[in-house]
Specification:
Elements lengths: L1 H41 L2 E3 L3 E4 L4 H10 L6 H10 L5 E4 L4 E3 H10 L4 E5 L6 H11 L4 H11 L11 E5 L4 H24 L4 H17 L6 H13 L22 H6 L22 H8 L8 E4 L6 E4 L2 H30 L2
Antiparallel strand pairs: 1-4, 2-3, 5-6, 7-8
Helix pairs in contact: 3-4, 6-7, 8-9, 8-11, 9-11
């Protein structure tokens, strides 16, 4: 009898061992099959733009965003991403259009944007800035110009004069939409600090004035004084008669001549028209906007360049202004004579 009991116990232990081994091998088999499936899944080819925007947020919200962009990610991708780390945010550089899903998921957690620096100089026009963007980022100028014309709020002044660090590889529309959005947020924030609200239409009246200040002022310090001249002349319904307003668009770097003043019939010609141009002349800085909103309290109506200092001489009446112009011309003539003498000495045997 004791022998039978021993046999029964041995059989039970053998069966348990056999069951455990079977379960173990089944688990191993499942893991191997799952591994093969996952390996196959992560080697599926995937195409993407070289530079991709990833919004800030949780892994779930990022996957939802990417699925809206047709990346077709699922729970498996979510698990893999969590094992790898956390997705980067902002514009990331994937460096290639074609990759496996594994590469894509890895790059989501490790890639950084390839940034290029570009400066929109205060007083420069969108015409030249779009050309600059085209050359620096290897983009189509025609596409940039078309998108700009379709979506810009005004002809100019839609992009704040500033230095930008932008990812190389962005499409024309993404690049301009980012610059428009960034500028509008800056304008809104600045307006709310000053006025407590942001009325875009009214705000651009200040951008028009700021753009004239930007074109005319020789320094940040004299911007409020130039601004006062603009407001004083507007109050008296005097034409602004400022050359800078004619340096719009493709004419940004052209010297304004009497012929141009005579033949130009646009609202930018402040010799022919009273009031302000219908659009900003150029891009503006926050300093110019500040001066447009807070002009100096003066009675100045005129200004002319001071050849000695490079700044301007301001005057309240036309007689003083004419004297300042004559002084400017005298200094200019003296400089020309001095330059001519120097050139003659250098060329003499």
């Amino acid at each position: 009898m004791p022998l039978n009991k021993k046999n029964i116990k041995a059989n039970i232990r053998a069966k348990i061992k056999s069951s455990i081994e079977a379960i173990f091998f089944n688990i191993i088999e499942i893991i191997l099959v799952a591994s093969i499936v996952v390996l196959f899944y992560v080697t599926i080819p995937l195409s993407s733009t070289k530079v991709l925007f990833i919004p800030k947020g949780s892994t779930n919200s990022i996957i939802t965003y990417l699925n809206k962009k047709s990346y077709e990610l699922n729970t498996v991708d979510k698990i893999i991403i969590k094992l790898l780390g956390y997705p980067q945010s902002g514009w990331i550089d994937l460096k290639t259009n074609y990759m496996t899903k594994a590469d894509f998921l890895h790059k989501l957690t490790t890639s950084k944007a390839a940034l290029k620096t570009i400066t929109l100089i205060p007083g420069e026009t969108s015409y030249f800035f779009l050309k600059q963007l085209s050359q620096k980022f290897n983009l189509s100028y025609e596409k940039l110009a078309t998108i700009y014309q379709q979506h810009a709020f005004r002809v100019d002044g839609n992009i704040l004069a500033e230095t930008y660090k932008l990812p190389y590889g962005m499409r024309e529309d993404h690049l301009l939409f980012y610059l428009f959005s960034y500028t509008n947020k800056k304008y809104e924030s600045f307006s709310k600090k000053i006025f407590g609200e942001y009325n875009r239409k009214n705000w651009y009246k200040y951008i028009v004035i700021a753009s004239i200040i930007q074109k005319e002022a020789a320094s940040i310090k004299e911007m409020p004084t130039v601004s006062s001249v603009i407001y004083n002349r507007l109050k008296k319904r005097m034409p602004l008669q400022m050359d800078g307003t004619l340096n719009y668009g493709k004419y940004s770097h052209i010297k304004v001549t009497s012929k141009m003043i005579k033949e130009n019939n646009t609202s930018y010609n402040t010799y022919k028209n009273t009031g302000l141009p219908s659009n900003p002349v150029s891009a503006v800085s926050l300093d110019a906007i500040k001066a447009a909103i807070f002009p100096a309290q003066t009675k100045f109506l005129y200004f002319v360049k001071d050849e000695k200092t490079g700044l301007h001489r301001f005057s309240k009446d036309y007689k003083t202004h004419v004297n300042n112009i004559n002084d400017y011309r005298k200094v200019k003539r003296a400089k020309r004579r001095a330059l001519k003498k120097t050139t003659t000495k250098k060329t003499s045997p």
